[in-house]
Amino acid sequence: MWHRVRWRRLGWGGGERGERLTGTVRTTRSRIIHLRNDWKDLMALIEKRLHEHFASLQDDDAAEEAAPPPNIDSIPRDSVPEPLDQPFAKVNTVVDNSPAAAAGLKPGDLVRNFGYVNIENNDGLKKVAECVQGNEGQNILVKVSRSTGVSRPQELRLTLIPRRNWGGRGMLGCHILPL
């Protein structure tokens, strides 16, 4: 009778040699190296895109600061802050080439003051209409709060000159909703 003899591969210390495990170790190491390289490439790409994004934000901010509309005064941030009135109205729409557009009003602006009108005396926006009627062709100071997507909204002082013959309905060219 013949018996098959299994020969064990023995290493120097008498234990099994790890030839069978060598392939697994090599493929695992290779996979780790590939994943590490992919991770480094992704991190470099993310870093590059972040730099581009924030550079474009700075360019946009610089362009906005360089050319503000003529009727807009931004409230200085370093000055002593005066208490802000609560908004009582929101600009819903603004028609192009209207007095409101010329003043710099934009949809979404929150109106804090409209001439002498504020949250305490607006009477459901009736006083705003009264203020507009009584100041046709004259400057009206409008304080608005504009969301810029940053943590704090931008506080603006706009000069609005209501007039009838601008080519559209009303004297402002915008639709204001009460809050």
From TrEMBL:
Span of the signal peptide: none
UniProt-listed Pfam families: Nas2_N, PDZ_6
Domain PDZ: 91-146
Keyword terms, alphabetized: Chaperone
Biological-process GO terms, alphabetical: proteasome regulatory particle assembly
Gene Ontology cellular component terms for the protein in this record: cytoplasm; nucleus
UniProt-annotated stretches for the region Disordered: 62-81
InterPro entries, per the entry: Nas2_N, PDZ_6, PDZ_sf, PSMD9
All copies of domain Nas2 N-terminal, residue ranges: 24-55
Family (UniProt): Belongs to the proteasome subunit p27 family.
Protein name: Probable 26S proteasome regulatory subunit p27
Organism expressing this protein natively: Parathielavia hyrcaniae
